[in-house]
Amino acid sequence: MVNRVIVGAHYGLRGWIVQRVSAVLITLYVLLWLGILVVARPADFTQWRALFSGQAMKIVTWLFLVSLLLHSWVGMRDILMDYAKPTSVRFALEVLVVVLLVAWGGWAMQILWSL
After folding, report:
1. What is the pTM (predicted TM-score) of this model?
2. Of 5, 18, 68, 89, which residue is least crowded by CB atoms under 10 Å?
3. How far is residue 46's CA from residue 49's CA, in Å, rounded to a whole number?
4. Rounded to 5°, angle at Cα 2 from 77 and 87
5. What are the pLDDT digits (tens) for 12-36?
6. What's the rounded Cα separation, in Å, for the pair 70 and 44?
7. Three-state secondary structure readout of the chain
């Protein structure tokens, strides 16, 4: 008989869905950028700034950044769950990753909305 050992709070399906949805959003944003670069061809700072001056572009970019941060979190969490064996070390590394991701997200939001 096999004993099932349940670890964590059942992150499997939720993490899988977050990973897939965020990957789709990241892909759509990259395709949007490719379209912008082909059609608009911003050449200097004023054109780039004008591109990000609209609220829609800021929101789409923010959704991309949130997707990227969530995608990074799920990936790092899975890596740490697999390879950081002492629970205390894994927990400390997870906290470090969360702090860094939140700081980068806040920094990105500050840059994005200061334009």
Report:
1. 0.84
2. 5
3. 5
4. 30
5. 889 999 999 999 999 999 999 999 9
6. 32
7. CCCCCCCCCCCHHHHHHHHHHHHHHHHHHHHHHHHHHHHCCCCCHHHHHHHHHCHHHHHHHHHHHHHHHHHHHHHHHHHHHHHCCCHHHHHHHHHHHHHHHHHHHHHHHHHHHHC
